[in-house]
Amino acid sequence: MPHISLPEGLPGIRGAMAFRPETAKPLNELVEVLLRGPNTLSPAERELIATYVSYLNDCYYCQMSHGAIAAAHLNGDEDLVKRVKADFQHANISEKLKALLIIAARVQKGGKNVTADDIAHARSLGATDLEIHDTVLIAAAFCMYNRYVDGLGTMQPRDEASYRERGKMVARDGYIAVSKTYLPAEPIPR
Amino acid sequence: MPHIALPEGLPGISAGFAFRPETAKPMRELAHVLLHESNSLTPGERELIATYVSSQNDCYFCQTSHGAAAACHLDSQEAVKQVKTDFRIAPVSPKLKALLAIAGKVQRGGKNVTSADIAEARSHGATDLEIHDAVLIAAAFCMYNRYVDGLDTWQPRDESMYAEMGRHLAEHGYIKPSR
Asked: What burial class does residue A181 get, using C-beta atoms within 10 Å of its C-beta: 0-12 exposed, 13-18 middle, 19+ buried?
């Protein structure tokens, strides 16, 4: 049972967002820009960063949702997603993305852990300032989303098929479009 | 020196915001709704939660700027200092103490929040919306703090600059840049 009375039948962050549409709006806009906006990193690469950080934070709902969205962007390659979580150094991803995942893991433990060497390593593999910026912010943002989802004790179904189906939908339509299926149409009177 | 080429002369998060306006917009809006818009928790109380979490995350820029905004709302530096050192003996309501305890749990990880923490906050009159906002403020500052420190932004040790920033934030909120 969630810690507060969240709308029923909406798992994970969706229940929390439907409870508080005023904060859901910027939360959805941020994730849309970070993970789907125009970028030299592909949506799949950015979803893998989000999935990896959510895994490090042990947030079941977020790692399953974003893992499914990443897999949908990768033609259904769920094995690659699992490999990134278990041991990204041996996953079939670019060396640049591996360097960015190292930075993301540092940020997950705390921003001050990122070293000049981590940055130099990413640059030597072709990472741009914008890509480094976005990696830091994706990792930081998922330290927020993960805490929000777990801190409210949201419902997190253990049903892989439901995440797979929704992952395809979000990969196709995006976060803001899909949010219209669960956010209230009218503002909630306060 | 910041890890990437951020615009010069802008302290802390302002440099990250100027570098990437596309992400700055929702991040500003989120802070504005959480800390500035009307709420049964006062802006001073919500800034104290933000300051406390930033202090637990050891982010100098965030704890000093939000501490200054809180001090401005509350007309007291002392409350801000005591909340950071030991909120249990700070001159704040028992309800806010219970919400700060929840925020501290969220800072260490969302799963640390227990039903006993929630029951304690409710026994002091906290509503579901107040508990929700305490959790999200704490979670959001785990993002802002990591963003500011993860880019190694410039964080001047200049108290008067933070005092001025705090006044601007307390008066105008977070949508527009303070400098």
From this structure: exposed
From chain B, pick out residues whose CB is under 8 angstroms from the CB of A5: 128
CATH number of the structural domain spanning residue B31: 1.20.1290.10
Distance CA A36, CA A188 (A): 28
CA distance B37 to B127: 17
**Burial label, A120 (beta-carbon count in 10 A; 0-12, 13-18, 19+):** exposed
As for the ipTM of the complex, it is 0.98
SS3 assignment, position B22: helix
What's the confidence (pLDDT) of residue B179? 55
H or E element at residue B49: helix B43-56
Distance from the B98 Cα atom to the nearest Cα atom in chain A, whole angstroms: 14
A chain contacts of residue B26, beta-carbon cutoff 8 Å: 25-27, 29-30, 33
CATH class of the domain defined by A42-177: mainly alpha
The whole-angstrom separation of Cα B37 and Cα A156 is: 30
Q: Where are the domains of chain A?
A: 42-177
Shortest distance, CA B51 to any CA of chain A (angstroms): 16
Number of Cβ atoms within 10 Å of the Cβ of B63 = 24
For residue A106, is pLDDT > 60? yes
B139 is a domain residue: yes
B139-164 b/e (C-beta count within 10 Å ≥ 16 → b): bbbbbbbbbbbbbbbbbeeeeeebbe
Q: How many domains does chain B have?
A: 1
Q: What does the pLDDT look like over A5-53, one tens digit per residue?
A: 999 999 999 999 999 999 999 999 999 999 999 999 999 999 999 999 9
Residue B55 lies in a domain: yes
Structural domain including B81 reads 13-172
Asked if the structure places residue B8 within a domain, the reply is no
